[in-house]
## 1
Amino acid sequence: MRRIRDIPLSRKLNWVIMSTCTVALLLACAGFSSYEWLTFRSAMPREQSTLAEIVGANCAAAVVFSDARSAERTLSALRAEPHVVAACLYTPDGRGFAKYSRHDVKWSVPALLADGYRFESDRLTLTQPVVYDSERVATIYLETDLRAIQDRLLRYALIVGTVLVVALLAAWAMSARLQRVVTDPILDLVETSKAITEKHDYSLRAKSYGRDELGLLVESYNQMLSQIQEREALLRSNRELQDFAYVASHDLQEPLRKIQAFGDRLKTKFGDVLAEDGRDYLERMQNAAGRMQTLINDLLSFSRVATKAQPFVPVDLRKVAHEVLSDLEIRIEQTGARVEVGELPTIDADPLQMRQLIQNLVGNALKFRREHIQPVITLDAHVNGEGLCRLTVKDNGIGFDMQYVDKIFGVFQRLHGRDQYEGTGVGLAICRKIAERHGGQITAESKPGDGATFTVTLLVHNNNGESNS
Amino acid sequence: MKNNGHGKRITILIADDDVDDRMLARDALAECRLANDVRFVSDGEELMDYLHRRNNYEQPGNAPIPGLILLDLKMPRKDGREALKEIKADSKLRRIPVVVLTTSKAEEDIYRTYDLGVNSFITKPVSFERLVQSMKTLTKYWIEIVELPPEKR
């Protein structure tokens, strides 16, 4: 048998309502019945006692004058009371004096019993004194048949039973209708959830039926759906943007390559016949094409942070830093820079992206050096108790105004003219994206003319390498 | 005897749908001063027609067997990968050296074409000078240096 918590909600509610109703009705019926029974038990002897008293009073004179015939006549008046089946009078010494029997003429007077009433299986017997002039002159005995009255009680019980059944049926019918006030919103919610899970359609909404707790539930559920829908849309547009950036930069390269190639041809074959300004125009065109090439390449590497992401493996940042420094060896020599590498830890990361990150940061530090001052670049890292690695790249270069601190991590954001410093403004955007992919972020601290410190936080332990948010 | 610029003319077959690229390739090969016979097809279907001498290439003179195929990957109808697969699966054609010359730098393209049996994978150089360089090296290597199995057909 299924447990109650596994049966459907509507049946569960029915079950709850019906069992509550049944218990309530049974208790009510039991109450009424016992009240009736108790009333009967206490009223019956009282009525009989009154009757006996009246009859006894009427017979008192006959007893005093030993007129048995007159006494029996008086007793026979009990015929008017259908439940009284027999009665008799006793003389004070306990002998039968007069008797009455409804059905049996040969009924014999029973032995005298003590005063009081007694319930027997189907009859009530009563013995009480007959008083005349405040003197006990006789004893009267009254026997009442209870069967008829028991029949009445039985009929009463039958009616109660019928009422119970009818009431329960009515309750069932009503609960079947009324429980829908509660179950309909819930069932609707369940249907909506099912549809959403099956179709992945987050534009569906659950129907609201009111402003009670269920209404609030439906409302917050719908709000959650809206949020999911927004997130989905955002994710999709992000993905589309990434795909777009990747595809666009791929396809943009094709015509650009030709501009460059035919520019080359034009210059080589016809450079001599062109006038000075013609060659200048050509030169500018080719420079612009070259710049576009750089922009596209940078955009490609920016979108590759997400599209060409590799799973995380343990990466020795110290080793990566030294590889980067040997790549940058010529520039370090040319600028006369001093690069100090502190103790760098091993963390779970995408090795290529770690290299890209450090290369961009150190490359920037070399690029934005102050003139006539030896560039000093410090790479260091600390792992805190929460498993977060703080990698810092500090330089003594030109620095920047902190009002631009948020701007510098945006794509194609630059603080300097192209003629001052080369670059497309993608490097730090790539760094930010890499940091975010590794569960951290990138911040910078600087003052104009006083160097800059870039801090990248990275999770030391990270098995999230498969996904790229 | 080795074939070189002074000897028997070698046919270089270039499969590329891009008119500009065909022009640049022709110019670059001309720049190499190797008097080779350069022919063009514009997609994989046409390449297979040429190699099997079908349709427009029924006349043997129209389709001399190439000594080197330069193959672009992105082409309409039948792309370079499919054509490469067919060439390398064909016992009569598989000995012709095929060099992929494409704009793609995608790793999976490099892996896949080498798996299909391509002889070299070259990314189209950006500048014309570099293209000339590449063509010179390519033709020198595949036509002068490398010993290929003698033609049977």
## 2
Amino acid sequence: MAKVLVVTSGKGGVGKTTSTAALGVALARNGQSVVVVDFDVGLRNLDLVMGAERRVVYDLINVIQGPVKLQQALIRDKRIETLSLLAASQTRDKDALTEEGVARVIAALRDRFDWIICDSPAGIERGATLAMRHADAAIVVANPEVSSVRDSDRIIGLLDAKTEKAEKGERIDKHLLITRYDPARVARAEMLSIDDVLEILSIPLIGIIPESEDVLRASNLGTPVTLSNPTSAPARAYADAARRLKGEDVEMSIPADKKGLFDKLFRRRAA
Amino acid sequence: MRFRGRSYVAFALAPEPPVADWLAEIDAWIRSSAGFFVGRPVVLDLAAVSLSSAGIAHLVSELEARDIRIMGLEGADPAALGPGLPPVLRGGRAASVAEPSAGAAAAVPEPKETSLLLDSPVRSGQSIFFPMGDVTVLGSIASGAEVVAGGSVHVYGTLRGRAMAGCNGNRRARIFCRRLEAELVAIDGYYRAADDIAPDLRSRPVQAWLEGTALSVTEIE
């Protein structure tokens, strides 16, 4: 059965789009059919991070407003054939998203794909609420710093109130993805520790992505890090998170500054 | 066409002379609790001040400029009021729990909830308002969240946001939490912001209660 994920955070710049692309690649590499959908109408980026910006003809808004068919707007990835992209429109704004239109597109995508990953815009307004509206599960992206964590907390409150599942009285699954984790800065108490973040947000952890040059480089090259450098630490962390999303039990380790005894001491399992 | 009577709970603001000083107090309160009055019904109790019609109109507009919408006046002479002012209300009672008044349409009193149990965390941006009694939170109250209770507030997790107990004037209400990281605690309008709480109480299990007009915060052993 198809699963709709929303990647959301409240705060901007924490890594929603990067994580959407990296998880999309990781899930598709395992043979599952995946579509990544950009909901950031007016400020689209997912096409760039996926390296598909020169192939966008039709977008989400064209499909919502017609007469473009979904099939025409889906862009199949050239490197992984089970991965597709539905781009956002750069020339429009979030008001072009309609509740009914989004429902129709998500329903159509459910028939075609195993995973539908919705890349939410920052903020708590229309674009963000419509991106989460039909989700079965949410990936809440947070950096280990107070402003990001508080904004994530706000988003979790909205996930429990404004999604279709919540309104039916069901619970939406929420997974915490901590990105840009820098063990050296945590050791100097310049960043919150994993335990601090978990204590504040109290939702289960799906992955910890270490801060890495590889991620930035990959985004700028239009090749998600799970594709460009699959053996790098962030790529492995994303791949592990993708396996946990599929329900596999994968041991979680907190990235440490130096390998060895220290690393072993801080090895622990997901909450 | 039928008219029905309804009774609602409203906040009563009672200005004290001199009004300018009182407005300054309101400003200080709004600075520490931004948005507290937004969307809440407020009645202006003018019993303690003697103001002309123009004075009342000025006061109402001053409050409106602070996002406090006045739905009615109390303790003013209806004959002395000019047009454009809210209506004069009578028969307000201090115990502002919504009770069906005698002869009102509500014949069957519903069993009243006197406490509220929240088994999930109160997230940033959420506002819980329960004037009928105690609120118990099994999780934490996040930074940027608030819980307002007519009775006491019990937090079994960490209190990071705001807790306001005794909002209907219950001076015996208290605030308990397993771990204090609060932005603000208040009982019956007496409040302390984070900076006014002794630093050694941070991250400790504490209770807050009213001693006279002082809000005491102490560690629970």
